């Protein structure tokens, strides 16, 4: 395929995405580092923010990124009020959402207090534990099934610093944390007390799950052609090193 034809096809896809409202709304979590969060200055930051800005630059189309709690962001997307970025796939979600290509692979781990480590090889090892989670977040089919079967108990929190404080004071057995590469450091640096006790938090060796995340729109919004254009932005951003491959 010639470079000229490829360029024409690329521009045509973005032209098609303009058939919708000039400005698309996409919802994201304000506490989901490194995908989407507010930085120390209170500004939107993260891989999703970088990707959306790149899409705007390539396409010339404005995107309104609205950050809220994950629960609220998911509810608005479920109602077809806009897209949602940072969403993982589940069987139930596939029935109601259209997905982009994955733009980031999140490694989800179990964080425990130092000295309170336990053997973890499968979800079965979580039996009887009290686990801090974020409601409406999925941590893989095996975990979700075990949760529904009440193999373990969950403590639902929406603020990562609250989750870590509960762990620190032995109010939960472990915390599910996304992005084991740097997730904990992004959380503790917001809280001086947690930062001073960073060495009290350790990950269990085996990750809970590897969880690709996506941009998604409720099927009622009929955004499949828009997603095709966004997929090109994902590919281009990865090739240029703007987001992790």
TrEMBL record:
Family annotation (SUPFAM superfamilies): Periplasmic binding protein-like II
InterPro entries: Solute-binding_3/MltF_N
Domain of life of the source: Bacteria
Keywords: Signal
One Pfam family, short name: SBP_bac_3
Domain spans labelled Solute-binding protein family 3/N-terminal: 25-201
The UniProt record lists the keyword S-adenosyl-L-methionine: no
Protein name (record): Transporter substrate-binding domain-containing protein
Organism whose genome encodes this protein: Iodobacter ciconiae
């Amino acid at each position: 395929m010639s470079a000229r034809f490829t360029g024409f096809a690329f521009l045509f896809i973005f032209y098609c995405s303009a058939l919708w409202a000039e400005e698309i709304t996409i919802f994201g979590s304000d506490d989901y580092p490194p995908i989407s969060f507010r930085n120390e200055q209170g500004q939107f930051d993260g891989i999703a923010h970088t990707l959306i800005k790149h899409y705007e630059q390539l396409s010339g189309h404005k995107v309104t990124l609205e950050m809220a709690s994950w629960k609220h962001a998911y509810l608005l997307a479920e109602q077809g009020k806009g897209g949602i970025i940072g969403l993982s796939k589940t069987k139930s979600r596939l029935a109601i959402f259209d997905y982009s290509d994955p733009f980031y692979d999140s490694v989800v781990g179990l964080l425990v207090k130092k000295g309170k480590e336990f053997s973890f090889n499968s979800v079965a090892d979580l039996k009887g534990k009290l686990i801090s989670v974020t409601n409406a977040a999925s941590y893989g089919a095996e975990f979700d099934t075990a949760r529904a079967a009440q193999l373990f108990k969950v403590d639902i929190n929406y603020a990562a610093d609250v989750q870590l404080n509960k762990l620190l004071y032995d109010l939960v057995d472990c915390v599910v944390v996304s992005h084991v590469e740097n997730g904990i450091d992004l959380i503790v640096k917001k809280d001086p007390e947690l930062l001073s006790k960073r060495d009290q938090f350790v990950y269990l060796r085996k990750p809970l799950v590897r969880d690709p995340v996506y941009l998604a729109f409720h099927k009622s919004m009929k955004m499949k052609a828009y997603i095709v254009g966004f997929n090109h932005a994902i590919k281009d951003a990865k090739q240029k090193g703007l987001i992790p491959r």
